[in-house]
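Problem 3 from the worked examples.
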Amino acid sequence: MTIQPAKLSEPAVRAFVNAVNSHDRDGFMSLLTPGATMSDDGQDRDLAEWIDQEIFSSHGHLDVDNESDGGRALLAHYRNDTWGEMRTRWRFEIDDEGRISRFETGQA
């Protein structure tokens, strides 16, 4: 059973999931700090390139199964037009202003 995005504990993560699922690139970018970073399966990636390929040009969508660490860690089913659906993990670092400075994802 999935957790509805509105029920996610951490506001920045809730907004992240909503931006991904509504394909709101501008809203997504507004959640990130300048110089935000990310990794996929343990490898640092170019953030702008990765989000364009893995989220926005391929219609990414997150269905959250579980959250932990105060809502800063998720287990979710992620799907896009390129890779189909897979079980994934997500971890977020959030600054004092409530913006995401780093996220890490990968297959769970």
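Problem 4, a separate protein:
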Amino acid sequence: MYRFLLPAALLIGGTAALSADTKAYEAHQAAQDKAELDKQLAGLVPGKPQTCIDPIRYRDTTRVGDTILYKNGRDDIMRTDTGGGCFGLRRGDAIVTKTFGSQLCRGDIVHTVDLASHIPSGSCSFGDFIPYRKP
């Protein structure tokens, strides 16, 4: 019976250490994401959240963690938080959206797809779109 206690104790201890490492990594990543968002949105003021945007107006996208920034130049940025699940956002996978109409709207489904293998890597939905503009 004692032969099984030592491996079980080592397994539990290893899992706790792995959990602590994961939490430390996630905290570090969250701090990096916040710093990058602050840098991208520096000098801009948030406006009233909108439910939809015209994607033709915003030609450039930047991903920061679970956030997507749609840009129309430096002084006109729309921010939407996806709430997680799009694991490919961080890796730079392709963003594929399913829209109903000509606009991107809160609740629209976002899929991420690995560009090399064409395998889906996650899915999530848009949150509100918050405009950031120069004051």
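Solution to problem 4. The helical segments are 2-40, 88-91. The CA atoms of residues 110 and 122 lie 8 Å apart.
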